[in-house]
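pasting input
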Amino acid sequence: MSILQWTWLVVGATFALYIYIAWRSRVADVKGFYVAGSAIPPVYNGMATAADWMSAASFISMAGLISFLGYTGSMYLMGWTGGYVLLALLLAPYLRKFGKFTVPDFVGDRYYSNSARTVALICAIFVSLTYVAGQMRGVGIVFSRYLDTGINTGVIVGMIIVFCYAGLGGMKGITWTQVAQYLVLIVAYLIPAIALAYYFTGWPIPQIGYGASMITGPHAGQYLLDALNMIHKEFGFQAYTSAFGPGQKSMLDMACITIVCMVGTAGLPHVIIRFYTVPSVKAARSSAGYALFFIALLYTTAPAIAVFARYNVLGTINNKAYTEAPQWFKNWERTGLVAWLDKNNDGIIQYRPGAGFKGAPKFKEGTGTVGQRLVENEPTKDQNELYIDRDIIVLANPEIAGLPNWVVALVAAGGLAAALSTAAGLLLVIGSAISHDLYFRMINPKASERTRMMLSRVMIGVAICVAGYFGINPPAFVAQVVAFAFGLASSSFFPIIIMGVFWKRATKEGCIAGMILGMGFTAYYIIHTTFMGAKPWCFGISAEGIGTVGMIINFVAMYVVSLVTPPPPQEVQDMVERIRYPRGAKAASDHGM
Amino acid sequence: MEQDKAKLVAYWHENLVIIFVHLLVWFLVSYGFGIILMKPLNSFHLAGFPLGFWFANQGSLVIFVIMIFVYCAFLNRLDKKYDVHEE
């Protein structure tokens, strides 16, 4: 069977499975809808959390990104896993004991203030919408490459599928579907990695393989990483395992970005909400452990894929005549994600440091002397002639490794599973934020369950349409907006939740001052440096990492302002006292403790 | 009642110490070994991996996972010791 037929078959089968699971676990009450009745066993909740967390970006883009960044890419590996340690130690058990549905719920009750609740609500919606748009885009890309449908059709099909199971089953439906999606995506990620590791080093475990010696090719007998470093030097790149050199990030900047990734993860509402779905405080702690185990399975494989791919790209393309380039190179050139500009007209692909030409490639009609697509971008002065989009590293992997067609199809289904599972979790946060936090808690506390369920479903529908719109018409600044989301999550939610649990004296005024100053500074810095073109003026920290400074400002402001304002009311202090001890945790609910 | 209260305070303090020790390890393996001490550690090797690079790429992640389960085990014992565990 061809790749196309295989892809239809595998994607169709997985979609049917997701819908079937959602149908089996449909719910009719708010408790089931928002927090799956707090009855998900921790291992499964861990898998669901992993699928929820690992987005199209983790699955499709991350290994590619690391492949180009080398050692510096570790900031994403440590950053997007280390946050779970913070969750398990500092947040999950206490929020679970607190036992409400959402993050704005906690903020509003702990800080006895509807203004704080509102700020939290707006942040939750903004962060979630930003994210969901990126997922829809991911769905579109996979559809257009593998199913020949065009990006827009892909986005619309994705929208319908997500609405079916998020709207029908709420958190319960989403959770069980995510368990299935996790299994699909991890198998799809591991198979090509294992095949590559085995091919290069004879080790079937990628995590070990990329530190082993090679058994094939011109560098047989050498350690793979040594060989890669050597090739890097030969072509003028910084060594793959080197750090903090010219053109690389500074130590401070890398540390700041790692902190933002960790703290941002721990402050993302769709991650936090997962710890309301388990039956007990004990389960909330271990659930974070299982989640990280399932995430780490993919995250420790990613740097291995990055190394194999880097070696492949440099070894099979660089200094080769275009006419002898491998087939996958030409397949992806057709999609426009690979481009070659023959600056010195020698018909040979020279891949060197630097961007070969300005911006993403634009093509003109016709082909060049050796059959390549013609790029019309303005060339730069450096000697590099090659553009490779980092998103193709994972998707092209099976083709590069010469794996059978069904593996290619499985990778496509894995990418879709990653995008859909994350989108569903985010949509639920948006739906519950509006129907629960805004409507039920602030506008109409007498609303019946029926009305609230109805409103949730409608809001999920609206959110899908907004996300779909951005998926079809992506704003030019998606990457910056994601940096924004992480910066905001780390400079707002994280400090106020931590202080709320660990410091009884934290007051409403402190919380509001902390959020406004922390977020205000972070937002200003990001806008100033990315949209208004200012140099990163705060110790050279880039926009991605500035949330660290915002977080510190939040903590300090909160501490100072809390001390000069009257202490919180006794019942709030008693509540903080109670959430510290596990006994007496009930299923999450919408009234009382 | 007074005694109960003192017991709960003791529980919380012990919990804070456990959290602090775990956060220390968390910081050490990622920011310490993986970033700040990365260069000096790279002169040691673990098979083909320079050691600092390995901590940043693999080691810290593996230790994170183990750490959470160790923390769970500590806390489960602590909950029982102070009789605050869930029925």
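fyi The mean pLDDT of chain A is 86.
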